[in-house]
Amino acid sequence: xxFGLIVDSCFRDHATGRHPERPERLDSIDSAFKEHKILExxxxxSFEPAEEEFxxxxxxxxxxxxxxxxxxxxxxFLDPDTILSGYSARVATQAAGASIALARAAVQGEFRKGxxxxxxxxxxxxxxxxxxxxxxxxxxxxxxxxxELDSIRKVAIVDFDVHHGNGTQDIFYERGDVFFLSLxxxxxxxxxGQAEETGAGEGQGTTLNVxxxxxxxxxxxxxxxxxxxxxxxxxxxxxxxxxxGFDSHRRDPLGDFPLDEKAYARIGGLLADLAGEHPLISxxxxxxNVDVLGSSVVAYIDGLRGR
Length: 307
What we know:
The chain is of the alpha/beta class. About 35% of the residues lie in helices and about 15% in strands.
């Protein structure tokens, strides 16, 4: 079965000057895709921007309106790290819409595995706040899109970004139909994701945080990853979503984790084995060294495809 892919030039329109989360990230991925002829062997999807009504499934209306109002003024800061241009709110709805489209297509059988090359990233956006370069939470919206479909009762989200996916945790913390696994550097931005944070109410036990110290070696990281995947296997989800953050690369300027291209291929293979015949989609999060981002994404996709 083919591999689903979303790439689009519209994601370059979120351009805010000298900022780590910049359009050149996509240039790195595009160059690697061309070198390895990725597009020729994938099913490329079209998509529509997410409607505000759907955004409200995970975000407060006031938060959404603030992002649009800030862009309408020509741009500005939503928080000290999150700056918008006049186009950014629109691009964020396109990133969300692409993530939703990929999720629905995977469940409906167009393909079983897929990757959305979108920006801005999303996993720091909480129910009521845009933060950490993130405007809307793409992975949370994709999970909601899957759970609307009859064949999906439970999903698992795996987040291997070097930063804790606090927004995703916040949105699903009291939900039993979403299992959230995060391996992240700690202490590090945003300061959340302690092991004691395990969910609440109906979601008790469906959050698994694995805070890891800076400077660990790869095998220590993978030991923790294997334990996390075992927990997901016991949860037995109907689909898996991945917040694919490549700032966990050893050369990334915003973290101190040990991964490299071979590690990302290994991660992809492990996730593919875990998913089996269930849908598995990945959505781009961090990754700020443009010299290694493209090669890391290709290695990860190769791992997902068993190459």
